[in-house]
Amino acid sequence: MQPAPSANLDEIEKRPQFRPRPDISHVVLDFDGTLSLLRGNWQTTMLNLFLEWLPTNGDESREVLQTDLRAEILSFNGRQPIHQMRAFAARVEARGGASQPAETYLEGYARRLRLDVNARIESVCTGKVDRDEFLVHGARTLLDQLRAKGFCLTLLSGTDEDFVREETELLGLTHYFDGGIFGGTPDPAHFSKERVYADLMKRDGIRGDNLLSFGDGPVEIKSTAQLGGLPVAVASDECANGSGKVHAEKRAVLVGAGAEIVIADYRDAANLLSVLLGS
User: Fold this and answer.
1) Which has the closest alpha carbon to 17: 272, 275, 260?
2) What is the distance between the alpha carbons of residues 279 and 119, in angstroms, rounded to a whole number?
3) Would you state the pLDDT for residue 220?
4) Distance between CA 279 and CA 267 in Å, rounded?
């Protein structure tokens, strides 16, 4: 999927509701698109699958259709992919098509995506590509600085937990997450990011002012905002890592979910943390 024209914003965009949180003690980070690019541009894989299966009208603009589908795909970002597949199945039926079970669409998507991910993993394992090439620009520096400040770090992803743990280890990130690594489960009814946030708050006895989250999906942004924490939207352009440009479509979704800060990447981690903490 080609991203919408990137928005050239200040490196740190402060939304009107932003306020620093000097009492932060816990940081929750999403994985894909927020730290890892091993699944970079997964949206294109999903979009192409949907375009193959979706009944179309003869006079329908393909560009408008793609824009509509992209918006729906991004609106579910952060949840397990089965939710996008269920929404797509409903869209097929609404157009008078014979929908496949959501699980059928999911199997096709996962198979295609896995080919890309496996090729990237092999490139790291064979030394052809440095593992940091598959990190959002500046991510390791950010993690180092978060740990240096003594924050408890938790990794939370809608991707299946087995894959998250495998890929976190491959990228050399496992040791950062003393607060735990959490991912999707085979039965999506047994997993939600909202539930993990609630459990974390209860487990460690923290308040909203103690919570900072980084994510590129509306789920973690909305959950953090509702808890009174500080949600940072990472509107990363996965097709141009390190460009410093904010992905306009991601930004729109994340701002709508309640982001207080919007960034493209972590190019100036020290300054970013100073802004977030009000120091």
Assistant:
1) 260
2) 43
3) 96
4) 18
* Burial class of 271 by CB neighbour count within 10 A (0 to 12, 13 to 18, 19+): exposed
Long-range (24+ apart) CB contacts under 8 A made by 97-104 are 97/53, 97/54, 97/55, 100/53
Tens digit of each residue's pLDDT (9 = 90 or more) over 185-196: 888 888 899 999
Place of tokens 């939600």: 192
Q: List C-alpha distances in Å: 12 to 33, 148, 216.
A: 18, 22, 15
Complete domains list, the chain, with CATH: 13-38+132-277 (3.40.50.1000), 42-125 (no CATH)
Q: pLDDT tens digits, residue range 215-272?
A: 999 999 999 999 999 999 999 899 899 999 999 999 999 999 999 999 999 999 999 9
Place of tokens 């097929």: 92
Residue-wise pLDDT tens digits, 144-186 = 999 999 999 999 999 999 999 999 999 999 999 999 999 998 8
Q: Hey, how many other C-beta atoms are within 10 angstroms of the C-beta on 261?
A: 20
How many secondary structure helices (H) and strands (E) does the chain include? 10, 7
213 Cβ contact partners less than 8 Å away, ≥ 6 residues apart: 27, 28, 29, 30, 220, 221, 223, 224, 229, 230, 231, 232
Q: What is the Cα–Cα distance from 178 to 30, expressed in whole angstroms?
A: 15
